[in-house]
Amino acid sequence: MRATSLWGVLATFALIFEYGCNTQKTMYRWGGYDEALYDHYKNPQKRDEFVVRLSGIISEAEKSGGAVPPGCYAEYGWALYEEGRTTEAVAYFEKESKQWPESRPLMEKLIRNASRAKAPAPAPPAVPASAPEEAKK
User: Fold this and answer.
1) How many Å apart are CA 55 and CA 77, to the nearest integer?
2) Within 10 Å of residue 20's Cβ, how many Cβ atoms?
């Protein structure tokens, strides 16, 4: 084989390899979800940042038409549940269950538990100490 033919073949393989690597698409729109989750587990005190990042990841994926990564809806739903926003949490648990059927048993349990959770009762109005005794009752 001539040297020029060998170089031509190698150049062709190099281009094919580079083309194949550059056009590889991922299955999900990760958007930094894996890094956000790792950071959250390392630094749980930065929970608010984590929740904001999850919200951004979900909205970017939905806006671009990409698939939200597995667990992202559930993680965000759990964050909402911890904040007492059970109705919104249930909506995200349902999204996770719909998009990832293998998570359905866990999501159904979370939905059931969130539906049972009661919203915190509003605090009674404060009565000033100078009010008559009848108003304090």
Assistant:
1) 10
2) 9
Neighbours of 22 (CB within 10 A): 7
Please name which of 117, 92, 97 lies closest in space to residue 107, comparing C-alpha atoms. Answer: 97
Q: How far is CA 127 from the centre of its chain?
A: 43
Question: Is pTM beyond 0.70 here?
Answer: no
Residue located via tokens 């930065």: 46
All structural domains of the chain, each given as residue ranges with its CATH number in brackets, are 33-116 (1.25.40)
pLDDT in tens, the chain (137 residues): 555 566 665 566 665 666 555 445 666 668 888 899 899 889 999 999 999 999 999 999 889 888 888 999 999 999 999 999 999 999 999 999 999 999 999 999 999 999 887 655 555 565 555 556 555 55
Taking the CA atoms of 121, 122, 124 and 126 in sequence, report the sign of the dihedral they define: positive
CA–CA separation, 122 vs 64, rounded Å?
Answer: 40
- Cβ atoms of 114 and 81 within 8 Å: the answer is yes
Region of residue 38 (phi > 0: left; psi between -120 and 50: alpha; otherwise: beta): alpha
